[in-house]
Design brief:
Chain B: Keywords: Nucleus, Phosphoprotein, tRNA processing. The complex is a heterodimer of chains A (167) and B (260). Chain A is an alpha+beta fold. Chain A is built from six helices and five strands; from the N terminus they run ααβαβααβββα. In chain A, helix 2 runs antiparallel to helix 4 (67-84). Chain A has helices at residues 2-16, 20-38, 53-57, 67-84, 90-93, 158-166; strands at residues 40-45, 60-65, 110-116, 120-126, 132-136. The longest helix of chain B has 19 residues, at 137-155. Chain B starts with a helix and ends in a 25-residue tail after the last strand. Classes of the chains: A alpha+beta (167), B alpha+beta (260).
Chain lengths: 167, 260
């Protein structure tokens, strides 16, 4: 009996999440974008600009990712979030370029550098559109949503449950 | 350098009646200098003029070829490619005006700050366009597998009815689904099947097993896909919204209309 009751409770809690399908959808889109940006294909290109014999004979092989689709998926994901006013978990949001919506994978689609200005900060440059994101890199730095005083009843918080799903 | 000035010379001489009969390497001096005494005593000008007067184009050619000869294999070719019949600037290009410089600065700042792109910029950079080499079925098989997992999660545990999934499907995502065109007003679309990689307001972009990318309009066609052995229909006509706009759209039941 007690087990059944617990199961029901858990189920009720699970059902309680509003816009559940939309969160699932956004989650899927994020994963799909990650998949697309990490799959690479070989692109062969010949230079037509230079007329030298050498360069026409030489074919440039370059490995490229299908980032364009990843960008499209993330764009739709963000639009869904905008329309329904669903918050995106900061760790997810930080991985998306603000300008071109591409997924920022350090060393692959973005360049991360630690710079010491007034305080140490992390600069992430999108290699697609050159937009820069700057985050403080202090040791004790906490996001607003991570601060204990901002969390209402840490375990039963809805947003934390959602954020887990998002990541 | 010299070539262009000689050209200038000829054009100027057309506009003004030539003061001296011979053509010079350099454009004629302004009048106020000519009148002054400095000019009269200056024999350098005369010396160069006599030296060049016979054939100044030849002089340029010999001068350039001599200068380049030590470094290049074929100086004549270099002359003919880069200098012959070309106008070259004597000065550095003029600096951009302050306004344009500031505009550029602002633009750069907007890029760094991550201001969102305008639609025009997106079009120019081709930000959502898939390169041709990437149109291969194998690249998207994994996307399909991911989509199947997503659908399983959406549908819930096995054994749940199709009627529970149907309303959810309206707000679901179809990137990665294997869609087949079963009915269409255009007969050539019928039977096309592939993984959906992009859904726009009015089209589905499919990649077929033969690595061909097809863009199929939603209007006037019906798509099907299979899940757990059940077949689902998408009426394209009533589905013509953007993938993101569909999330908060309230769909109304409409009588199905036969195509043809």
């Amino acid at each position: 009996m007690s087990k059944k009751g617990q199961g029901k409770k858990i189920q009720q809690q699970r059902e309680h999440v509003e816009n559940r399908e939309l969160y699932q959808r956004m989650n899927f889109l994020y994963q799909a974008a990650a998949l697309m940006t990490t799959t690479t294909f070989v692109q062969e290109s010949t230079d037509h600009n230079t007329k030298d014999e050498k360069s026409t004979a030489k074919r440039n092989k370059s490995y490229q990712n299908i980032g364009s689709l990843g960008r499209f998926y993330l764009n739709t994901m963000r639009n869904i979030g905008k329309k329904q006013v669903l918050r995106i978990e900061p760790s997810v949001k930080r991985n998306i370029c603000k300008r071109c919506d591409s997924l920022l994978v350090p060393g692959f689609t973005s360049r991360a550098r630690v710079k010491s200005r007034r305080q140490k900060q992390l600069e992430i440059e999108c290699s697609e559109c050159k937009a820069i994101k700057i985050f403080p890199a202090r040791k004790d730095y906490q996001l607003f949503s991570e601060k204990p005083e901002n969390i209402v009843g840490a375990s039963t918080n809805e947003s934390s449950g959602e954020s887990q799903r998002m990541t | 350098m010299a070539e262009s000035s000689s050209k200038k010379d000829t054009t100027e001489s057309k506009q003004q009646p030539p003061l001296e009969t011979e053509s010079f390497l350099y454009s004629p001096l302004p009048n106020y200098i000519k009148k002054s005494d400095i000019h009269k005593d200056n024999d350098i000008h005369q010396a160069t003029s006599s030296l060049l007067s016979s054939n100044n184009k030849d002089f340029i050619k010999t001068f350039v070829t001599d200068a380049v000869a030590s470094r290049a294999k074929d100086p004549e070719q270099i002359y003919s490619e880069k200098i012959k019949d070309k106008s070259l600037l004597l000065d550095n290009p003029p600096k951009a005006s302050r306004e344009t410089r500031e505009k550029r600065k602002l633009k750069r700042r907007a890029i760094i700050k991550g201001k969102s792109m305008t639609a025009k910029e997106k079009r120019q950079l081709k930000i959502y366009e898939l390169p041709k080499e990437a149109c291969k079925y194998e690249y998207f098989e994994q996307l399909n597998a991911l989509w199947m997992g997503y659908m399983e999660e959406l549908w819930g545990p096995p054994g749940s009815k199709e009627s529970t999934l149907a309303p959810k499907l309206l707000k679901a995502d179809f990137h990665g689904a294997i869609l087949t065109v079963t009915k269409s007003k255009c007969p050539s679309y019928i039977g096309i099947s592939g993984i959906c990689i992009q859904e726009t307001e009015n089209t589905f972009k499919l990649i077929t097993r033969k690595n061909i990318c097809k863009r199929i309009p939603k209007a006037k066609s019906i798509f099907t896909f299979e899940l757990r052995g059940a077949q689902f229909l998408i009426h394209g006509d009533q589905f013509a919204y953007r993938a993101s706009a569909r999330a908060n759209k309230k769909f109304k039941g409409k009588p199905t209309v036969d195509i043809k």
